[in-house]
Each structure stands twice: as structure tokens, then as C-alpha cells.
Amino acid sequence: MLTQTTPNDLTPTDLLDNFAKFVRLDTADGNAADDTVKTYACTVRQFFSWCDSQRLHPLDATKDDIKLYRRWLVEIQAYKCATIALKLTVVRRFYAGAVERGLILANPALGIKPPRENIDPAERINYLEEPEVTGLLESLPTENTIGGLRDRFLVAVMVLEGCRTVEMHRACIGDIVKRGKDIGIRVSGKRSRRIVPLTPDLAKLLNKYLNARKRSGEALLADTPLFIALDKRTYGGRLSRRSIQRVIDKYLRATGLKEQPKKQKKGKKSASNQSHQPSMGNGEVKKSFLEQNQEHQPSSGEKQRPSKESSSRSNKFQQPQRQLSAHSLRHTAGTLAIRAGSDLRQVQDLLGHADPRTTALYAHVADRWRNNPALRLGVKVPL
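Structure for Phage integrase, as requested:
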């Protein structure tokens, strides 16, 4: 039991196990998803690895140590502000769990804020224009196999209805809602559930997809995943969030909207692996926290830098300045819906935004050029 153990005697495995229990009990009102627990554990392992490089036991960390860790995330790892915010949040939750279990007296990560992102919030919204959406949908497979129908419905519902990756990952057959002739999907977002109404075309595509699965002999029960994996190892299982992202990336690349992944150069070691261990002064090399606890050896946490080789692929849709992803399809749905005349409240309900100010960002993006007040001045600029 932890109450019978000296805190500094706890191994990384002990700390991770107890943190996982804390996350499952404390996060999302005790209903934390498995992928959330995995993300938190991975982030804490990276923090442990940094502590190891500093010859620091995690439970001995001070506020200044957490600030040094933040600096490492900013300067060495070069993470984006949003990523740093997530990592600091997880570290703060780790220490909150340690305080709750009596391992430490105070949370050293409390009050340590991420760096501010000095850009217009609207610039973070990467979306597709209507011709690009058409090109993306035309790139989808036309065969009526389970895989072809799954991909067509998945991409279409995300780009037109703005569903999140996690919502598609969690959706089950029992989440399909029928109201007369209307069909929708009940999705579970970050903190809420809502019904996403399907357009008639999407409803027909969903029925074709489900019928193909029935013909294969699959029993479609209420808890059966709506989107299933089709590889040999996990066939019929729930399609993971990462796999959904891969599906979206595949078709973004096929349309030329996303560059092909860069190949990593072999034989290149990270700087952290080349550093020497400090001596204790008597010729003996000081063992680090992780070396003293061989039960768990997390990776160094070094962020792999992509190759700087430029892609020779060119396409009329390609815009290198954008970093498109599965989440960009959600931005696309919101931006194009407002541009087409939907009001903010309708788009907020569709996307499941808790704060209308989040939805307002899409209006800002959609209207910035069309409703530029300078256009109303009627002043001609000499050319």
C-alpha cells in the first residue's frame, strides 16, 4: 500500500499505476475514456524521462523545476502552445493525484501557465474551400464494399456535419437515431452528448454501409462499433482514433491537399542519448531515477523532427501553408455552414460547442474578406 511506502521509494511503475487510477476516478466524472488514460500516461512518461535527465525524482520537483520543464518543451521540443498547455495540464493532474494520496504536501505545477500564442485565434482554423470538399469527396472509393462504404460515410459525415474524431471513434450502432423519415447519430463529445442530423444523402449512405455489414454475416448489436477496423489483426473491432486520422489523411493526400509523409533519416541519434552522465566525484557514475528503478524505462520523449526534404508533388488543390488534418474537416463544416447563411446558433448546435464564442471564430473566418468594413468606404486606391 502507498501509505506504507516512502514516496521516494516508489518506482515509475508505481507512480504511473496510481496516476492511472486517479485519472479513471477523477477525470470526466469517473468516465474517462481508455484513450484519455493512455494519452495522460504517455505524457507523464515523457515528464518522467525529463526528470531522469535532470537526476530528479518526480516527487521532489519544485515550481522552478516545472518551469524548467516548460522551457524545455518550448525551446528544445519546439511544441506548439496548445500542446504545451496539454502537457502542463497532465503534469498538474499528476501532482494533484500525488497530493490527494498524501505523497507530497503541495502541487508544484499549480499556477504554471503555458506560453501565450501570439496569433489571431482565427488563424488556427484550417479549412477546405467548397471546390476542395468536392475534390475530397470525389477521391473516395466508389465500390460498395464494407471498406469503401465505411470510408465514404466517415469522410462525408466529418466534412459536412463537423463530427469530431473521438465522436466517430465512440459511436455505436445503438447511437443511430430515427425520427420518422429522419436519421441522425447520437455522439459523445468532450463533455456532452448531442444528436447530429444526417442529410438525406448521408442517411442513404449509412443504410448502404450497414446493409453491407449485415450481408457479411455480422450481428449489429446496440454496442457494436459504428466504424470498424478491417485489418486482419483487429477486424471487426472499434476503429481507433489514430486509424480514423489515417483514413482522413489518406484521402487528403490522394486529393493533393496534404503532402506525403517524409521519410526519417536512419542512424541519427537525439542529443539526449549522446549526453554523458554526471560523475559523483569518486569515479562512480551517478545512477538516474529511472536507472534505479528498472521496472519501467520510458522513452526519452524527444520529439522526432520531420525531414526537411521538399515534396515534388504539386496539385491545384495543394496549399503548403495549411496543415490539414482530420480536425480540419470539422473546421470546414463550421466555416462553410456560416458562409452558406446558417446562423451562429444553428452551427453551435451542430458542432456541439459549449461556448458560442468558439463558434463565432468560424464567422470571423468566413466574413473577414466578404464583410471587410473598408469595402464600404468607396475610396479608390491609385494603382
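Residues 34-53 form the longest helix (20 residues).
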